[in-house]
Request: fold
Amino acid sequence: MGMFLLRRVGVMLLTALCLTFIVFFMTTLYPNLEKLAKTEGNFRMSDEAVASWLDRNGYLEPIWKGYGQWLGVLPGHVHEAEDGTVTGSCIDGGMDPADAPRFCGVLQGDWGKSVTFKDDAGSLIGTRLALTGKLMLAVMLVMVPMALIIGVLSGMREGSRLDRTLSTFSITTTATPEYVSGVIFIAVFASSAFGLKWFKASATSAMEDATWANFTLPVITIALYGVGYVARMTRASMTEVMTAQYIRTARLKGVSFRNVVLKHALRNALIAPFTVIMLQFPWLLNGVVIVETLFNYKGFGWLLVQAASTNDIQLLLGCSVVAVFVVLVTQLISDIGYVFLNPRIRMA
Reply:
């Protein structure tokens, strides 16, 4: 297990470097940089003025050097003007250039400054990530137990009336996009159209104080969309396990159907759904943009959309680091979980 973890961590680091380099390359293409320069200066800047601004701020460095400076493994960019003024990526306003650190990148905790929000990109990402984390936790607490119960009940007796009913419900929830179910929930439960003003259509106040009224609709909207997929995977796995030879042997020995399901079938049936459940975390991190926008819940997805729409390069790069990290860590946890769910699986 120790060697497996070391190898996986090494592969994770290599994958993270490759993915972040690709994002850095795509984000810092010259059209994006030109748009950034004109946004920070003015849209009537000449090509010479744009090139001068980009050179002064270190955006015209070779791609490998710029990536190393952003990552923090190469010394930060330094620019000396004709009047002797020294500026650089590691030199904050009013700081003596002699006192500035040589390295100031992601590895040093410097995520750059957002040109949209005029604030540190790292602190912005941390704040919005915490809000999305709160939403993700509530969604998982609702979605996972519901999906597992539906999947297990369906797979226990394949082809029964209960199986057909629950399968229809699962397919319906998965086939209904969040923006459709969210609008329906708002119209029915949060407006005066049907006379049921049980909840609030906007979840803005839930960012500070989550209550039943302002937090229920976004949670249910996201959970219903994901519950069908996990339930269908659980049903398929449960159906396959229930037809295995050792299940038949247990039934022939007189073991009750309840004990066969709980003690023999359930553990093996959870292996495939466990992977699907872990994949929900990256989806919840980046895929709740519609719901966060619909309910005005300003989390990580909302921040990512704002960064992309305003060409906020530093903020986009910071969001990409977080997204890559979450995906790789959840995959590692998924692989480790295999061993505990089925001891016959060995990490070679």
